[in-house]
Amino acid sequence: MQFKISALVLLLGALSGCATYAPKPLPKRANLPQSAALITLDPARLPFRNLSSHIFNPADGLDMDEVAMLAVANNPQLRQARDALGIARAQSFAAGLLPDPQLGFTSDHPTNGALGNTNSFNFNLNYDVNALLLRSSRKGAAQAQAQRVNLDLLWQEWQVVSQARLLFTRLTAQQALMAQLQTARSLLADRYQRSQQALAAGNITLDLASADLVALQNIERRINELERSRLQNRASLNGLLGLLSTTPLALVGQPRAALMDAAAVQSGLVERLNQRPDLQALQAGYRSQEEKFRGAVLAQFPALTVGLTRARDTSGLYTMGFGLTMSLPIFNRNRGNIAIENATRTKLFDAYQGRLNSAYSEVATALENQPLLQTQLQRTRQGVKQLQTVARRAEAAFHAGNLAAADYVRLQIALLDKQTEVINLQEALMEQQIALETLLGPDLPEQASNRRAR
Q: Where does the signal sequence lie (predicted)?
C-alpha cells in the first residue's frame, strides 16, 4: 500500500510541472510599417561594430549605415532565421534533459481460484541506461548544431547588410545618372526644336532633322530604362527593410567603403577567414556531426534497461524483484547508422574544404579587380577633364557664332557620356569594395562575439 501511495505522489508531482497550451491564431492582415520613422531600434544591440556605434535617426533621411541598421533590425527573412535559432536552442535544451524512468502497472483478478485467492498486481519501474550513456554525445551534437544556426544567422545578417549597402550605392548612382540624362535630354530637345525650325524654313534637309530626333529618342529610352531600374531597386530595398514597396525613403549622403591594401589583406587572410561566420558555422556543423558519429559508435554496444518490480500474486504472496534487459548485438549492431553518420561526416568535411577554397578564390578575384577599376576610373576622370576644357572653348565659340550648333551639342553630349562613365565606374568600384568587405567577414563587437559563442 505504501508503494502505491509513493508511486501516486511521484506521478502527481511530475504532472504538476507540465506545460500548458494556449492557441495562437494566425494573422489576417499584413503588418508592414508604412514609414521608417515608425521603427525603433537600439544600435548597441546590432551585431556589427560600425553599425552599433552609429546614430539611427530616420527623421533627417537614411544614410548608408542607417539603411544597413534598419535592414538588420527589420528584415523579414532575418526574423524567421532568429526563430530558427530559437528552435535550435530549444532542441539543445531538450537534448540535455535526463531521460525519464518508465512506470508500469498490471493487475489480475482470479475467476475460478480457490477460497482465499486475491487480486494480484505488478508494479515495475524501469530505466533505459543506454539513453543515459548516449546523453553526452546527443547533447554535444545539439549544442554544436545550435552554434551552427547562430553563426548562420550572423552570416545572413552580414549578407543583408551587404545587400542594403549595394542597393543604396545603386540608387545613389542612378540618381546621379538621372541628372546627367536629364541634362542631355534638355540639350537634345533644344537641338531638335531648332532643327525642326530650320527644316520648316528649308535651311536643312530631312535627314539632319531626323538624326536629331533619333538622338533625342535614344536619350528618352535610356531615361525610361533607368526609371524602371530605379523603381525595381527601390522596391527591393523596401522589401529588404521590411517596408511596404510604396514606402518613400529619403536616402542621404554618399556610399562609403574603404579601399583595402591588397598586401595587408593577403597577410591577414588566414586569420580573417577563420573568423568568418559562415566558415565557423560549417565548423560547428562538423563538430555536431562528430558527436553524432560518436553516438552511433556507442550505440553499437548492447542496449541495457534495468528495473525494479513489486508484485503480489493471487495467493497474497508479496515479492520484490530486479529486472535487466539487454539487446544482443548479433545482426544489426547499429552498422547502418554508423555508415550513414560516417558518410555524412565525409560530406561535411568536403563541403567545408570547398567553401574555404571558394573564399580564397573570391577574395583573390576581388583584390585583382580593385586596381583595375581604380586605373579605369582614373583614366576616365582624366578624359572628363580634357573634354571639359574642349567643351568650355566650344561653348565660347558657339556663343560667338564660330561653331555650328550640331557640333556644340555633340561635344556636350560626349562630355555627359564621359561623366556618366565616371559615375558607372565609381559605382562598380564601390560595389567591388563592398563585395570584398563582405567576403572578408564582419568586424564584431564584444556582445556579438559573445552571442556567437553561445
A: 1-21
d(CA 124, CA 15): 19
Give the contacts of 56 (CB within 8 A, at least 6 positions apart): 41, 43, 66, 69, 70
- Alpha carbon distance 410, 94 (integer Å): 74
Closest CA to 72 of 49, 51, 87: 51
Range name among 199-213, 240-254, 295-309, 335-349 with the lowest pLDDT average: 199-213
For 249-276, where are the alpha helices, taking DSSP H only? Answer: 262-267, 269-274
Question: What digits encode the pLDDT tens for the residues 21-78?
Answer: 889 899 888 888 888 888 888 888 888 988 888 899 888 899 999 999 999 999 999 9
What gap in Å lies between CA 164 and CA 170, rounded to an integer?
10
pLDDT tens digits, one per residue of 242-277: 998 888 899 999 998 877 888 888 999 999 999 999
- Residue 181 has a CB neighbour count (10 Å cut-off) of 21
| Assigned architecture for domain 58-108+120-453 | Up-down Bundle (1.20)
Q: Of the candidates 191, 166, 170, 182, which has an alpha carbon nearest to the alpha carbon of residue 224?
A: 182
The answer to whether the beta carbons of residues 387 and 410 sit under 8 Å apart is no
The span from the CA of 156 to the CA of 151, in Å, is 9
Question: Residue 369: is it exposed, middle or buried by C-beta count within 10 angstroms (0-12/13-18/19+)?
Answer: middle
